[in-house]
Amino acid sequence: MNPHTAHPIEENDMTITDTPLTEEGAAPAVPAYHLAGVTKTYAQKGRVVQALKRVDLDILAGDFVTIQGPTGGGKSTLLQLLGALDTPTAGQVMIGATDLATASRSELERVRASEIGFVFQAFNLIPTLTAAENVAMGLEPLGLDRAERSARVADALERVGLAERADHRPGELSGGQQQRVAIARAIAKRPRVLLADEPTGNLDESMRDEILAVLGALNADGLTLVVVTHDSAVAQRARRRVRLDKGIVRDITR
Ligand code: ADP
Ligand code: MG
Fold first, then answer.
1. Which tens digits make up the pLDDT trace of 19-44?
2. Which of 70, 182, 192, 201 lies in disulfide reach of 121, CB 3.0 to 4.6 Å?
3. CA of 120 to the centre of ligand 2 (A)
4. Atom 16 (ligand 1) nearest CA
5. Pocket of ligand 1, candidates 48, 71, 77: which has the most ligand atoms within 8 Å of its Cβ, to mutate?
């Protein structure tokens, strides 16, 4: 046996053995996002606005990250990049294994349709449709057959605690229940990541707690959460807290 050909194999074995394990000793931690030197510039009435300035950020699969900071700090801009809804002016954005800069349009469509769920401050439900029909809207791009679609709708409503309200229209539901329908619509596609922009901004305290309980349960089931929030009660539930001010990101986890 030639020792020179055997050697690299040993090295490969070492590399695999040396891969860090999570605390449970299970699979290695998988990155949901890797951002390096991300800058986003807008031209606004002849003025240049730097919404993000050389942002470096890594988010692991299964994490629960909140993004806080003043209005205009760049939070929504960052969320748009994480959602593959926009591209950076400079720098690298990796969504799992997909590089925003080099991915084809159809690859980005696939990522948006099946890997990322969105929730906003406004529930954006269609008032004439039932809860179940609203949730089914989130599945449209996937082209599932009817049986699979209704199984997923029922499962998503169950996970947000609204199985009994499937036939109710938004006007017959409280604000907290409407936001839970919006969450069900976002998770019915079974995304890897849920992005939320001020999900409790329109809700009173008890409804906010309802949403927090749902988000906590989804995260416990392995869903990665990135939540923009002004609400410190929401941020307290996160595993990791990030502040975004004037386009500069800072980790403020204590
Ligand atoms: P936040 O969500 O933290 O309030 P944004 O990401 O919405 O902040 O905005 C960051 C900065 O970028 C602000 O100065 C805002 O005016 C500017 N901005 C955001 N979106 C656009 C856009 N589409 N065109 C021009 N300027 C924008
Ligand atoms: Mg915003």
1. 444 455 555 567 899 999 999 999 98
2. 201
3. 10
4. 72
5. 77
Give 89's DSSP letter.
S
> Do 180 and 187 meet the contact criterion of CB atoms below 8 Å apart?
no
Ligand 1 atom closest to residue 197's alpha carbon, by position in its atom list: 2
- Smallest Cα–Cα separation from 229: which of 47, 252, 221, 220? 252
Contact 147, 91 (CB under 8 A): no
Q: Which two tokens stand for residue 61?
A: 């699969």
**Residue 168 in 3-state DSSP?**
coil
The ligand placed nearest to the CA atom of residue 70 is: 1
pLDDT digits (tens, 9 = 90+) for 152-182: 999 999 999 999 999 999 999 999 999 999 9
Q: Is 77 a pocket residue for ligand 1 (Cβ < 6 Å)?
A: yes
Looking up tokens 């499962």 gives 155
**Distance from C-alpha of 8 to C-alpha of 23, rounded to nearest angstrom:** 29
Q: Report how far residue 228's alpha carbon sits from residue 194's, in angstroms, rounded to the nearest whole number.
A: 11
Regarding the beta carbon of 49 and ligand 1, being less than 6 Å apart is answered yes
Residue nearest to atom 7 of ligand 1 (CA): 76
Closest residue to atom 15 of ligand 1, CA basis: 72
- Does residue 75 line the site of ligand 1, with CB under 6 A? yes
Select from 92, 141, 116, 107 the least CA-distant residue to 224.
116
50 closest CA partner among 225, 246, 196, 250:
246
Task: Quote the CA–CA distance of 27 and 60 in Å, as a whole number.
Answer: 12
